[in-house]
Amino acid sequence: MRWFSSEEICEILARFEKVVIVGDSMMRHVIGSLNVLIRKDLGYGAVTDWNFSPEERKECFCNYQFNVKACSIQGIFKTADVVKNDPNSLSCPANTIDVMIEQMIRFPIAPEELSRLRNLLPSSKPLRPYAFIFGHGLWNDLDLQATLDWLDLILETTISSAPWLQTDYTSSYFVDNVSKFAGRRSRTGVQRSTSISWPDKRHNGFWPRLFLTPNAAGKEKPDEWLVSQGNKALTIFEESVKEEAWRRGVEHLGTYNMSIQSNKFDGVYVTPVLSLTPKTNSLSQTA
Q1: What count of Cα atoms within 13 Å lies in the side-chain half-sphere of residue 171?
Q2: How confident is the model at residue 266 (pLDDT cuts 50, 70, 90)?
């Protein structure tokens, strides 16, 4: 692991037409951390500080932009908003990067969330790849099957909405597996796709994908979650997701080891500074 400069991060992100971050509140911290770096602003880089009042600037400085709910809900969720409202704060050359988040926190996935995902994808192949960073787990209580159902449904939705991604999969493979997906039911009574036979090797090509599993828990983690979301459950979940992600052609980045000794203000989320580097390092290797 090494630190990347803001200029290096801009160069990495510029390799992609769009970087789509999909997941839960942990992934909000990921996009917030990226915004801190590409704006070179540890104090307010993750939030819409261009419309802050003097009181908000005082209350949302540095770690508080992540840790205080009134501040974090004013996070920057797509670089297009920075380009529109505060373009001079970006260290990346104009019109070279496009990073955004779609929040899909649990399975079953709400229909409107899937609809937003479909609308993101162009019907024709873009000049540069679309990269996806997935993160899921805590909102489904580290239920491995729910996470796999969540991931499979997103992958299937993406393929069916973007025909140009079929270059990574033969037509017969795509058709056969969509037919297997149709009508499958999970224990929750909604569609699932665990019967799909994903390829055994990674098929990055024009569709680089990375899955992040949750970081280690801290001592402030509420007691009611220590069994279902404690460190033993987190390590088992991380190892299981790594294997299953590989089967689906998705890169995996575990965050447990790098976060076990870090400070976590609520026992759940690591401090933003620790969040900054590993994700960019892994993304650079998928390009």
Answers
A1: 0
A2: low
The label of the residue with tokens 């540095």 reads 62
Residues 6 or more apart in contact with residue 126 via CB below 8 angstroms: 17, 18, 164
For residue 6, the Cα-to-chain-centroid distance in whole angstroms is: 20
Q: What is the pLDDT of residue 187?
A: 40
* Residue pLDDT, tens place only, 193-204: 444 444 444 444
pLDDT, position 215: 87
CB 250 within 8 A of CB 208: no
pLDDT of residue 202: 44
- Residue closest to 23 by CA, chosen among 87, 104, 91: 104
Q: Are the C-beta atoms of 99 and 108 separated by less than 8 Å?
A: no
Give the integer Cα–Cα distance in Å for 63 and 263: 12
For residue 192 the two structure tokens come to 């699932």
Contact 211, 134 (CB under 8 A): yes
DSSP string for residues in 33-69: HHHHHHTT-TTTTTB-GGG--HHHHHHTSTTHHHHSH
pLDDT digits (tens, 9 = 90+) for 113-162: 999 999 999 989 999 999 999 999 988 999 999 999 999 999 999 999 99
Q: How far apart are CA 22 and CA 139, in angstroms?
A: 14
Tally of CB atoms within 10 A around 90: 19
Whole-angstrom distance, CA of residue 168 vs CA of residue 149 = 21
Residue with tokens 């992609």: 16
Q: Return the structure tokens found at 136.
A: 């899921």
Q: Which residue has the tokens 């993160």?
A: 135
pTM over 0.85: no
Report which DSSP code applies to 256.
Answer: H
Q: What is the pLDDT of residue 275?
A: 53
Direct distance between the N- and C-terminal alpha carbons of the chain, in angstroms, rounded to an integer: 17
Distance CA 56, CA 139 (A): 29
